[in-house]
Design brief:
The complex is a heterodimer. Chain A is of the alpha+beta class. Chain A contains eleven helices and ten strands. Among the domains of chain B are: 61 residues, no CATH class; 115 residues, Band 7 domain (Tetrahydropterin Synthase, Chain A); 35 residues. In chain B, helix 3 packs across helix 5. Classes of the chains: A alpha+beta, B alpha+beta. Strand 10 of chain A pairs parallel with strand 10 of chain B, so a sheet runs across the interface.
């Protein structure tokens, strides 16, 4: 391009006027005109080049681009989306316009409409300034939700989503993420109004979370935001002002568990002991039974053996047996007291003082 | 002066571009436009594309964003049918649908969108208090209706707002609407706190008593069960002993051969058994073998006779 002005200066047509006899002034004017034309021409060409070159663009890995030709997207649906890895070209504005959309990155919105007011420092550090038990909620700053049993809870949610219809997401909404957040606020409020306070906080946390997610997905679908919900995490707590009251219930619950466990272990102990005792009773009875049977059988056998001896001399046998047994028995007896018959045949009075030990062992 | 053809082309191109810039404008897919001729709206445009116009100052183009705008009102108080004060914030998704109607109403403002939202807030306030006044608190919060009343309230506010927006001919369209905050005035929330505290107390006491009662029940059940087991075992043991006695009784026929001897032997056994332990025996001389004490051997022999 830079060649052009030079070639013109050397062209015979342009140098010709210099040969004609004109005054120095007009010659200078024509020189000035000529050089300014050259500059203008150069600028014009430069403008045209810039005009067309400005249409080249690339798309980042997490982006898609859409070309608007006279305001309308070029191509339909998926075809309108230009991906990365290529050099794209569009006509310059105002014919074409290139809109880039972040797509593959996961977007996050957080709903805090149901959470109490926190300073940014508190949020970052996670340290809470304690709240007086009696201090009221300020509706202007402290968000909360009402539960089905008319209790107050704080509840918040974080929802992550992916844009799957970028055209809709960008061209239909001024601020689509704001709309997502509103839907999430609504979902929290709606779900809280369906659950009792204990279900939200402890008994059915998962059910509540699922309800929030379902409602948010439903609202987002209805509003045609062009996104897919990835995750929805919900957190709920009792009002900070009522910490003590709620803690007391938790303690009572734990106490109850402990009392019940104690009772169950007592139950185990008692029934185990009873079952062991019962078994030993039965075993004892079994033993006694076999003992009794054997005993009787043995006695019967012995009786059978001695019956002939007895029949031979019954009286002598009895005397002999009696004496023998008494002898054996009397060696075992510790205290033997013999009381002779009084001469006059009157009965005698006998006093015995049993020592204590004996009384003790009597039963 | 002789012109170079390239110069000519470039010049013409620049003129075309300048002409386009002067006479042509485009409406994007996200916009609607109104063309005014000497300040008078003459052409509303809702479809995207390139359009022709006369250059300023004859015609002027006003472009408005037609995408869905998010708007939420301030927390406002409304009385339910059963006289509860409720503070609500509602979010609204709205957009400009008819530029011809929108333009004359809002163009005079610095910020037409903001002005439109101010109007919406006014209408929304009316719609909210009207709808909330028709419902009870239990319609907002309930375990039993699976949220249908809540949704119905949202839809009623939406319908009321839509009717009013249409009646005012603002050229707006309400896309969606929902409640995003539902709260109580501070004095009411304080009494809710008091109620919640007493409910917690009742719950804690209930848990405690229930726990104790259940534990007591478990204990007494266990004791009863243990008693039953022992009683059953006792019964079984008695049965077993009975069986033993029955079996033993079979041997009794042997003793039938001589009942006198049998009785003597049983008594001997009993005597021996009863005197096995430490015992004191008091006897006189009539008891054999102590009858020996009574006299000499002759006497004894005589006594035998």
């Amino acid at each position: 391009m830079n060649d052009h002005p030079h070639s013109h200066e050397e062209a015979p047509g342009l140098t010709a006027p210099a040969d004609t006899p004109v005054d120095v002034g007009s010659q200078a004017l024509s020189e000035a005109l000529r050089s300014s034309f050259a500059i203008i021409r150069f600028l014009m060409i430069l403008l045209v080049v810039i005009f067309f070159a400005s249409g080249f663009f690339t798309v980042g890995p997490a982006q898609r681009a859409i070309i608007l030709r006279f305001g309308k997207p070029v191509g339909d649906g998926e075809k309108a989306l230009l991906g990365p890895g290529k050099l794209h070209w569009s006509l310059p504005y105002p014919i074409d316009e290139c809109v880039k959309v972040n797509i593959t990155g996961i977007q996050t919105v957080e709903s805090k409409a149901g959470w109490y007011a926190q300073t940014p420092e508190e949020r970052l550090s996670g340290v809470e300034t304690p709240v007086m038990a009696g201090s009221p909620l300020n509706p202007a700053v402290d968000g909360y939700a009402l539960t089905a049993d008319n209790n107050v809870i704080h509840t918040r949610a974080t929802l992550t989503y992916r844009i799957n219809e970028p055209i809709r997401y960008v061209f239909n909404f001024v601020n689509a993420s704001n709309a997502v957040q509103n839907a999430l606020d609504d979902a929290l409020l709606w779900s809280a109004s369906q659950f009792k306070v204990d279900d939200v906080l402890t008994r059915d946390v998962a059910g509540y979370q699922e309800s929030v997610r379902r409602r948010a997905v439903q609202l987002i679908g209805k509003q045609e935001l062009g996104i897919t919900v990835e995750q929805c995490a919900v957190q709920s707590i009792r009002p900070r002002q009522l910490k003590d009251a709620f803690d007391r219930v938790t303690t009572a619950e734990q106490e109850r568990g402990k009392v019940l466990n104690d009772a169950r272990s007592y139950e185990n102990q008692v029934t185990n002991r009873a079952s062991a005792d019962a078994q030993s009773l039965i075993n004892l009875a079994q033993t006694e039974r076999s003992q009794m049977v054997k005993d009787m059988a043995a006695q019967a056998e012995r009786f059978q053996d001695i019956l002939p001896q007895y029949q031979r001399q019954p009286s002598l046998f009895v005397q002999q047996r009696l004496s023998e047994t008494l002898g054996r028995v009397l060696t075992n007896v510790q205290d033997k007291i013999f009381v002779a018959e009084s001469k006059d045949g009157k009965p005698r009075e006998l006093r015995l003082l049993f020592n204590r030990e004996l009384v003790k062992r009597a039963p | 002066m002789k012109r170079n053809p390239l110069t000519l082309v470039v010049g013409v191109l620049l003129i075309i571009i300048f002409g386009l810039w002067l006479f042509v404008f485009q409406v994007r897919t996200t916009e609607v436009a109104v063309v005014t001729t000497f300040g008078n709206p003459t052409r509303p445009l809702t479809e995207p594309g390139p359009y022709l116009k006369w250059p300023w100052p004859i015609q002027k183009v006003w472009l408005f964003d037609k995408r869905v705008q998010n708007f939420e009102d301030k927390l406002t108080e409304g009385l339910t049918r059963d006289s509860f004060n409720l503070l609500t914030t509602v979010y609204v998704g709205w957009k400009i649908s008819d530029p011809a109607s929108f333009f004359p109403k809002f163009v005079s403002s610095e910020n037409p969108i903001g002005e439109a939202e101010r109007q919406l807030e006014r209408l929304l306030g009316n719609a909210k208090s009207a709808v909330i006044g028709r419902h009870r608190l239990s319609d907002f919060i309930s375990t039993t209706d699976s949220g249908t009343n809540f949704v119905a309230i949202e839809n009623e506010i939406l319908a009321t707002l839509q009717t009013q927006v249409r009646a005012n001919n603002y050229g707006l369209e309400i896309e969606f609407l929902g409640i995003k905050r539902l709260q109580l005035p501070p004095n009411v929330s304080q009494s809710v706190f008091d109620r919640m505290t007493s409910e917690r107390k009742v719950l804690a006491d209930q848990l405690q008593y229930e726990g104790e009662a259940d534990a007591q029940k478990i204990r007494s059940d266990a004791e009863r069960k243990a008693q039953e087991m022992l009683a059953g075992a006792q019964g079984e043991a008695t049965g077993i002993k009975g069986q033993g006695e029955a079996e033993a009784a079979k041997s009794l026929s042997v003793f039938q051969q001589n009942p006198a001897l049998a009785s003597f032997l049983f008594r001997l056994n009993a005597l021996e058994g009863s005197l096995k332990d430490r015992s004191i025996l008091v006897f006189d001389q009539n008891t054999p073998p102590f009858d020996l004490f009574r006299g000499g051997s002759t006497n004894w022999l005589g006594g035998q006779k």
